[in-house]
Amino acid sequence: MKITKICCIGAGYVGGPTMAVIAKKNPHIKVTIVDINAERIAAWNDKDLSKLPIYEPGLAEIVEETRGKNLFFSTEIDETIKESEMIFISVNTPTKTYGKGKGMAADLKYVELCARNIAEVATTDKIVVEKSTLPVRTAQAIKSILHNTGSDVNFSILSNPEFLAEGTAVQDLLNPDRVLIGGESEEAIESLANVYGSWVSQDRILRTNVWSSELSKLTANAFLAQRISSINAISELCEHTEANVNEVAKAIGMDSRIGPKFLNASIGFGGSCFQKDILNLVYIARSYNLQAVADYWEQVIILNDHQKRRFSDHLISTLYNTVSGKKIAMLGWAFKKDTNDTRESAAIYVADHLLNEQANIAVYDPKVNGKKVQADLNYLNTRTEEENMELVQSFNDPYEVTNDAHAVAIMTEWDEFKTYDWKKIYNQMKKPAFIFDGRNILNKEEMTKIGFEYSSIGQ
Ligand code: NAD
Ligand code: UGA
Questions:
Q1: For 405-415, what is the mean pLDDT?
Q2: What's the gap in Å between 385 CA and the centre of ligand 2?
Q3: Could you tell me which of 66, 301, 362, 401 has the fewest CB atoms within 10 Å of its CB?
Q4: Cβ(164) to ligand 2 under 6 A?
Q5: Ligand 2 atom at minimal distance to the Cα of residue 172
Q6: 272 lines ligand 1 (CB under 6 A)
Q7: Residue to substitute in 159, 301, 336 for testing ligand 2 pocket (most ligand atoms within 8 angstroms of CB)
Q8: Which residues participate in catalysis according to the annotation?
């Protein structure tokens, strides 16, 4: 099928950047991203590019280049589905918060609503592409909905999971390690392969069956997260043995079978996907009664929770077993650098734990505002909104946030944190002045020389 119009349902962290790059590389295709969230669509259409709902290096430039030419953002979902030959489903698939599989399974209600919406309004043949991360065998459910409409419209279903990481989304999309397309219909697979073929060489476009494609996405995230939990587990052992986790990571990473990437010990991984996707994998394994498989992967999450917890426990015990009434300056709130996304950020859980101990939390993040910080804490429901408001304050300046603080906790690895005048920060803090470097980005020797009581992960 020749593709001239693409619709993407879901204008989020995946739909936005992915479609912007597809539009940039395929000027002959009209790409429209639709969403039920009118506010989000309005932000995508804002003339002021700093107001785009998602911050990603390089994204604003591509939106500026393509928006209004062949990239459009709209709330006209039905119309856009109707006119498009190819429809991407890129909606959120969070962990279920109710009913069967609560806290484990992926909530597929948004995906199902999309499938029903497409089934309802389509009058011509469509290729439907699963872009959201979905449990293995979801395509079966989508197929069943689409094929029982009573009309003679033909639907081909493809799985095309996305592997971009936030903060490097544009680069990841422009130079993907691979593009994965799972499907039954060769014609549909080739139509999608042609869209990517505008900039990705064909040998990097992998064709598989639908189920391998769906499962590969969950597996990739599980393996990546497992590496972090593995190095974080070793970081705790380092702290008891005078080994240095950075040195260990370097030494093992030089083994070409292990490789150097993704071995940074940290306060624990965050982000909207690792935990959700592993929980989902565990749930699927249990549903097939594969207990050993489920237990194996669940351990990745258990270790990650432990890592977050032990960071805040260590902070409290170092501050003479009490943080009550003390100002703890948190540098960073996003789950990693170069994004404004805070979903499942370790900072939220560390702050929550410290707030239970009546700490005063002061936050500075270059891309996250105070409203978001409050919303993240309120979402946990641990205390009242008023209490969060009273105990947590956000600042726009790194020197203000650290002024009079008892301790600085580095939660995100933003590059700018390394460039601060740490002597100045030391001078204005309460003494002894503590740094808890949850990302191992500062130099221990330099910090100690300034006078800080410095501790980091696994050193
Ligand atoms: P998101 O929450 O940022 O965006 C999803 C959007 O879908 C929201 O704007 C929401 O309003 C919209 N939506 C929900 N239901 C809708 C409906 N019925 N009709 C129209 N719009 C609807 O989510 P995201 O981070 O972009 O993730 C989307 C999917 O991609 C998830 O399955 C996720 O696991 C996967 N994924 C995410 C990343 C990432 O880095 N964030 C990377 C790879 C894969
Ligand atoms: C991750 C995957 O890397 C993507 O391939 C995938 O598409 C995406 O999930 C998804 O499915 O959503 P993302 O969560 O955006 O991408 O970012 P990562 O770079 O993977 O970082 C995740 C978390 O792990 C962050 O909190 C980061 O700080 C932490 N991390 C990462 C470490 O603690 N150590 C590392 O060495 C690497």
A1: 98
A2: 30
A3: 301
A4: yes
A5: 5
A6: yes
A7: 336
A8: 273
Whether residue 351 contacts residue 377, with contact meaning beta carbons closer than 8 Å, is answered with yes
Query: For residue 272, which atom of ligand 1 is closest to its CA?
Result: 41
The amino acid at 50: S
- pLDDT band at residue 1 using 50, 70 and 90 as cut-offs: confident
| Residue list, annotated binding site for NAD(+) | 10-15, 35, 40, 91-95, 132-133, 166, 273-276, 343
- For 43-99, the pLDDT digits (tens) are 999 999 999 999 999 999 999 999 999 999 999 999 999 999 999 999 999 999 999
Confidence band (pLDDT; 50, 70, 90) for 136? confident
Show binding-site residues: 10-15, 35, 40, 91-95, 132-133, 166, 273-276, 343
Nearest to 367 by CA among 326, 412, 408: 412
User: Tokens 């804490």 identify what position?
Assistant: 377
- Per domain, the residue ranges of the chain are 5-208, 218-301, 306-456
- Interval 295-318: pLDDT, tens: 999 999 999 999 999 999 999 999
Ligand closest in space to the Cα of 276: 1
Place of tokens 């095309």: 160
Which protein residue's CA is at the shortest distance from atom 31 of ligand 2?
262
Residues 32, 84: contact at Cβ < 8 Å? yes
Read out DSSP for 91-158?
---PBP-SSTTTTTSB--HHHHHHHHHHHHH--S-EEEEE-S---TTHHHHHHHHHTTSSS---EEEE
CATH architecture label of 306-456: 3-Layer(aba) Sandwich (3.40)
Q: Which two tokens stand for residue 43?
A: 């932000």
Residue 77 Cα to ligand 2 middle (Å)? 31
ipTM attached to this prediction: 0.98
Q: Is the CB of 217 under 6 A from ligand 1?
A: no
Contact of 213 with 139, CB cutoff 8 Å: no
For domain 5-208, give the CATH number.
Answer: 3.40.50.720
Fold match flag (5-208 vs 218-301): no
Closest ligand 1 atom number to CA of residue 163: 43
136: tokens are 């293995």
Instruction: Say yes or no: CB of residue 15 within 6 Å of ligand 1.
Output: yes
Q: Give the CATH number of domain 218-301.
A: 1.10.1040.10
> Six-digit token pair at 307?
């890592």
Query: Which residue's CA is the closest to the ligand 2 atom numbered 12?
Result: 273
Task: Measure CA of the first residue to CA of the last residue in the chain; give whole Å.
Answer: 57
CA pair distance 150, 136, nearest whole angstrom: 26
Query: Is residue 110 in contact with ligand 1, taking CB distance under 6 Å?
Result: yes
Report whether residue 216 contacts ligand 2, using a CB cutoff of 6 Å.
no
The whole-angstrom separation of Cα 248 and Cα 250 is 5
